[in-house]
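Appendix B. Raw example, untouched.
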Amino acid sequence: MRAIALIAALLFALASSAAADDVGAAQDVIRAQEQAFGRDDAASAYSYAAPAIRQIFPQADIFMSMVQNQYAPVYRHRSFEFGAAQSDGDRIAQRVHIVDANGEAWEALYTLERQADGSLKITGCSLLKAGQAV
């Protein structure tokens, strides 16, 4: 009986470790894109977008223009801090607390998905002013 409990605990620890690794990798991708926005590096920022996003915005400059106009708090901000995350297989959801250039608080929910090549790409970002209901 102890052996079964030990095996179960070990499997849980391995699964938790893998999920933590996935969340860390997702945060690295989000942070890299956020830094590319800060440098106005459209090509680099665009490289973190999933294929479905790239189909909607077929060029890096079109993608960057959309971010500038529709996601201004993501594009330029005072602070950008990771919140809670969830991992479910090849999909990760990561909350980010943002204070924009005007001092207003926002909540972003990034979604990422593991690609066939093993990389994580951003599949979406929902943005709400902090305190707004969905």
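End of appendix B.
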